[in-house]
Write a structure and sequence with these properties.
The complex is a heterodimer of chains A (550) and B (269). With 550 residues, chain A is mainly beta. Helices cover 3% and strands 37% of the residues of chain A. Chain A has a single domain, classed as Quinoprotein alcohol dehydrogenase-like superfamily (Methanol Dehydrogenase, Chain A, 8 Propeller). The N terminus of chain A is likely disordered. Among the domains of chain B are: 105 residues, Cytochrome Bc1 Complex, Chain D, domain 2 (Orthogonal Bundle); 47 residues, Roll (SH3 type barrels), CATH 2.30.30. In chain B, the strands form 2 sheets. Chain B has a 5-stranded antiparallel sheet with strand order 6-5-4-3-7, with no helix packed on it. Chain B has a two-stranded antiparallel sheet with strand order 1-2. At the A-B interface, strand 28 and strand 29 of A face helix 1 and helix 2 of B.
């Protein structure tokens, strides 16, 4: 498969009259409309993205990562009239995990392994395509994926499967710079959308199943020079390094394979970290294994870590904490607070004070059998005999977790957190493993004791104040779809058996669904062009848009 | 639980039924009509280690299935049925899924060893069985088995196709399936009992169930498709529709039946 991608490398299918050229020829006498204008996406625009809900300017919609659209043309009264507008067939057969961006009528959608296509967001027709050149025999964990790009100025930025970061010209798709973030041959890769803060491009890294040492990087948007690197496992000069037995920190994983969030007022970036390595054999890395399975609060100017909160100390179940950090300003304990909402892979829903990292609440939102609860400091109270064994130990949640990388959503209108949750279980095994650079280093594994149909997937609406479940909507297990909420008081998500659906955000009542033909393994988004609101979703390897009928 | 045991005599690898076609090293990736040249016990053991490192993250420890990859111990593979097909799938992956080709540092020998391991966990090493296969076939044909099972294109559709069951099940496992059919029922063979809001009641094989609808093959081989919102009652039956034969057949008859079923292989076709 990969050979084909290489052949197409850097073939830019830009139409000669690019968006820029058409705009320069704009005049009242023209009969053909030029492409929608593209104003540079300044940092100011990113800071105020909620003021332009017609655009989807970053992976999770806004800096608070709420995956909430301020558009309300499609609402819980008329959603039943949704019709498909266009479909874009991705060339790669791999299941798409992409969330496209939309800037002034131009859509940037990604496909596996690391390609970007610019489309007319009204029609789905292509302006240009960039195919990233990379080795054929890459090492990576869980499929050839790319989840999306970031935009700043007139550039598009993408982290690639071969652990590079590239800058492209947003109008033509031309490559501006390409830097190596880490050596792919030793198990590093990248699949998530970068995060823009100021003039820096922040990217995480994947490879937690290959004994990497995780980090978060910031690059200068102009030159591609590294501005700072924050290792997610502190080195031996730091006291927290003592939370790793011996030299186990060197191969301790703690990848950062999803996208973070940003609070401009506090000037803090929040980024989740993944499992310690080897995943299931904790005996070789005794200790809490900081800062794996944690959220780090980072000063984006310096890369300095301001605080951290570790969800699962000494994880032995592969419960990464790489979920999308959702920031919300809402009431807690009777007063308005700056919160962080986190439905963790370990099946607990956490509420933190994002200014200080103070733990406020931790309640299960999916089936779990490993902890009696979370203590006052936010540390789990483990139930004995839940660690992996040679014979196998069955524990909930499953390896994939109560939830995982698929985006949750928060609606400021309903003040509810929405997440695709899974009540599963796994029989966890421990094995001896030896680190070999570039090879899997997992120390065990798991198997699912019962057929998947015995377990439950559901969209759950959770109260940030109490952690209580307000409603749930069950779908065929096991769904890996993200969730979008909108100002039309709707919640959109999808199923493993190829349906895309809309629920009432207050009640969870199903209002609309459609068969999109293949598994939904991505998160929905929304945008508006020429006064029409669209809902977009990737299913299988097709990107679909829906809008109200004319 | 297995309630009865058959006397089995392991023939060992010296008399293995598999014919080793010839050992070739450094085969090009992508093979066809090629038997596995690496099937020694050591190959199976090495294949198990390789599987543990490369494949178990998705397919589960022991190949029993995980969240991202299916159970590989049933002997039925979605993308290939031959050793060469398995070799190609493991080497190149499956487009449109998370299944990628095996790590670049591995040789063709390693891939064949994983194939050998997968064969060992689904059917296992061929052994001699004590029963009389001809008597077993008479029992099979006279005992109503053909109502639900297909062999070589003939028979019913309410149970698994048995045409090559001998490749996928050990004699012990075949016996336990006969005496305790409820122990391992794949979702494909679950049944549904539903009542439509118009009063129609249907019971039959659960062919497929999704978020919004389900399909049933009833006992008269009629196909039904229901929207879940139209159903007043929907009951899933996860036990087997096959009777347990531990009390109705003698030990000798069970041995004969196992001998017949165990002889149903691809080589036999």
């Amino acid at each position: 498969m990969m050979k084909r991608y290489v052949l197409f490398t850097l073939l830019i299918f830009a139409i000669p009259a690019s968006a820029a050229q058409q705009r320069s020829g704009d005049s009242p006498t023209q009969t053909l409309s030029p492409a929608p204008s593209f104003e540079p996406v300044t940092h100011e625009r990113l800071l105020n993205s909620d003021a332009e809900p017609e655009n989807w300017l970053m992976y999770s919609g806004n800096y608070f990562s709420q995956r909430y659209s301020g558009l309300g043309q499609i609402d819980n009264e008329n959603v039943g009239q949704l019709e498909m507008q266009w479909a874009f067939q991705l060339r790669a057969l791999d299941r798409a995990e992409t969330t496209p961006l939309v800037v002034d009528g131009v859509m940037y959608v990604t496909e596996a392994p690391s390609n970007v296509i610019a489309l007319d967001a009204r029609t789905g027709s292509q302006y240009w395509r960039y195919n990233h050149e990379m080795p054929e025999d890459l090492t990576f964990c869980c499929g050839r994926n790319n989840r999306g790009v970031a935009v700043l100025g007139d550039r598009v930025f993408m982290s690639t499967l071969d652990a590079h970061l590239v800058a492209l010209d947003a109008k033509t798709g031309s490559l501006i710079w390409d830097v190596e973030v880490a050596d792919e041959a030793t198990g590093y890769s990248a699949t998530a959308a970068p995060l823009i803060v100021g003039d820096k491009i922040l990217t995480g890294i994947a490879g937690g199943e290959f004994g990497i040492r995780g980090f978060i990087d910031a690059y200068d948007q102009e030159t591609g020079d590294l501005a700072w690197r924050l290792y997610t496992i502190p080195g031996p000069d730091h006291p927290d390094n003592m939370t790793w037995a011996g030299n186990s920190w060197r191969t301790g994983g703690s990848a950062s394979w999803m996208t973070g969030a940003y609070d401009p007022e506090l000037n803090l970036v929040y980024w989740g970290t993944g499992n310690p390595g080897p995943d299931w054999n904790g005996d070789v890395r005794m200790g809490d294994n900081l800062y794996s399975d944690a959220v780090l609060a980072i000063n984006p100017d310096t890369g300095e870590m301001v605080w951290y909160f570790q969800f699962t100390p000494h994880d032995v179940h592969d419960w990464d904490s790489t979920q999308i950090p959702i920031l919300a300003d809402t009431e807690f304990d009777g007063r308005q607070r700056k919160l962080m909402l986190w439905p963790n892979r370990n099946a607990f829903f956490y509420v933190l004070d994002r200014e200080t990292g103070e733990f406020l609440l931790g309640e299960p939102y999916a089936r779990q059998t490993w902890a009696e609860g979370i203590d006052a400091d936010g540390r789990p109270i483990r139930i004995p005999d839940t660690f992996p064994t040679v014979e196998g130990t069955t524990v909930s949640p499953s390896i994939g977790g109560g939830s995982n990388w698929w985006s949750p959503s928060y609606s400021p209108r309903t003040d509810l957190l929405y997440v695709m949750a899974y009540d599963g279980e796994t029989t966890y095994f421990i094995r001896d493993d030896e680190y070999v650079a570039g090879e899997r280093f997992t120390g065990g594994g798991g198997s699912t004791p019962l057929p998947q149909d015995n377990y439950v997937s559901a969209v759950r609406a959770i109260s940030p104040q109490t952690g209580e479940r307000v409603w749930e909507y069950q779908v065929k297990a096991r769904s890996t779809a993200g969730v979008l909420s909108t100002a039309g008081d709707l919640v959109f998500s999808g199923t493993i058996d190829g349906f895309f659906f809309a629920l009432d955000a207050e009640t969870g009542e199903e209002l609309w669904h459609i068969n999109v033909g293949s598994r939904v393994h991505a998160a929905p988004m929304s945008y508006m062009v020429d006064g029409k609101q669209y809902i977009g979703i990737a299913a299988g390897n097709v990107f679909y848009t829906f809008a109200l009928g004319d | 639980m297995v309630h009865k045991n058959l006397p089995l005599e392991s023939m060992g690898w010296g008399a293995a039924v598999f014919v080793i076609v010839g050992v070739m090293a450094g085969l090009p990736t992508g093979v066809s009509a090629q038997a596995n040249p690496y099937t020694m016990v050591q190959d199976v053991q090495t294949g198990e280690v390789l599987f543990g490192r490369q494949c178990s993250v998705c397919h589960g420890v022991g190949a029993g299935g995980g969240e991202m990859g299916p159970d590989l111990t049933t002997g039925e593979f979605e993308h290939s049925s031959t050793d060469a097909g398995l070799f190609n799938t493991i080497s190149e992956g499956v487009p449109g899924t998370a299944m990628t080709g095996i790590n670049r540092t591995r040789t063709d020998q390693s891939v064949w060893q994983i194939v050998a391991y997968l064969r060992s966990v689904s059917g296992g090493e061929r052994v001699a069985v004590a029963g009389d296969a001809s008597a077993g076939e008479r029992l099979y044909r006279g005992g109503g088995c053909t109502g639900c099972h297909v062999i070589d294109g003939a028979g019913g559709r309410h149970g698994p196709n048995l045409s090559t069951i001998g490749d996928r099940r050990s004699p012990d496992r075949l016996l336990s399936d006969l005496v305790d059919p409820d122990e391992r029922v794949q979702p494909r063979w679950w049944r549904m009992r539903v009542t439509h809001r118009n009063g129609t009641r249907v019971e039959g094989l659960r062919m497929n169930e999704g978020t919004y609808s389900l399909r049933i093959l009833d006992m008269d081989d009629e196909l039904w498709s229901f929207l879940k919102k139209d159903l007043l009652v929907s009951e899933r039956i996860e036990t087997s529709s096959m009777p347990a034969y531990g009390d109705t057949l003698t030990d000798g008859e069970l041995e004969d039946l196992v001998a017949y079923l165990y002889g149903l292989t691809r080589a036999d076709q």
